[in-house]
Amino acid sequence: MTETTTGGDGVRSVHRALELLAHFDEQHSSHSIRDLVEASGLAKSTVVRLVTTLEHAGMLWTRGDGRITAGVGLMRWSRLAQSTWSVPPEATEVLTQLGRDCGGESSRVYVRQGTARVCIAQQEGTQQLRHVVQVGEAMPIWLGATGHVLLTGLPPDQVEGIGVAAGHGADSAARLARTVEETRARGWSASHGEREAGVSAIAAPVTTPEGRVAAAVGLGGPTSRFTPEHLDAWRPVVLEAAARLARIPFFGGIA
């Protein structure tokens, strides 16, 4: 086997192992081997080999009942991630005020991770009917206002590539490119039901002193409350929140 092939197989194995870990979350804290085979589409022998490797690294653990769950080794990585990505108190204050000034909607901050957007901070709204996401959850970047905002930090050819990779056809990719250009021109974005039916959002970019898009801040909630009148009223508040976050050094370090 050549060195190139070995390297390729190694990268593929790492990718498969990470994909296997991604099947574990708060809602799915344990799996059987059969679960992982069905979810991953990999051969049983491959899944068993990956699970064994991840167990040796402390990333997975096989319980007494035979089900597989998170390993104790992940606690170290969890503490590191929380330490690295915990937003400072002044950023939490901005999010709290944003929600309060905009009818009690949930406020959030997202960053780009490849072709995904990840929520790194959230202040739940005070409305009885409110929309909540999981902090740390990865979502498609091509769907939703915060995704549109984050994509303004990429050159047009990369935006086009993400649109094509989304797999919804050339027309959909072209629409995404237009939406991102419109978002870049006006400095904010709003969306209705793109990722989840009945849910709307408005977002603006958090930029570094050099003008790079470091994050997106916005509101999310039921479409019935995200009326044109409310969006007009909330837009300057969201833009001001983005400007305040941009002055916090934390966000300059994640662009």
From TrEMBL:
Residues of the signal peptide: none
Entry keyword Electron transport: no
MF GO annotations: DNA binding; DNA-binding transcription factor activity
GO biological process, one term: negative regulation of DNA-templated transcription
Residue span(s) of domain IclR-ED: 73-251
Keywords: DNA-binding, Transcription, Transcription regulation
Highest taxon above the source species: Bacteria
One Pfam family linked to the record: IclR_C
Entry protein name: DNA-binding IclR family transcriptional regulator
Annotated organism of origin: Promicromonospora sukumoe
